[in-house]
Design brief:
Layout: E1 11-14, E2 19-22, H1 25-30, E3 39-43, E4 49-53
Antiparallel strand pairs: 1-2, 3-4
Length: 56
């Protein structure tokens, strides 16, 4: 079972073919996300969207 640590609001903006998701900087920094970094996504069996740094 998945435990939810935090629930925070995110802001979503859309252009013609891209979706921009704005995360609170404290959460992004805690997860090691940096400006310009590419992330990959996974959708789990519960339908949750998971983001992680792209392996490369």
């Amino acid at each position: 079972m998945v435990k939810i640590q935090q629930t925070k609001m995110v802001k979503i903006q859309q252009t013609k073919n891209q979706l921009f998701i704005t995360l609170p900087s404290a959460i992004a920094q805690a997860k090691g996300f940096k400006k310009g970094m590419e992330l990959e996504y996974v959708i789990d069996n519960l339908g949750n969207l998971l983001l992680r740094p792209k392996k490369g």
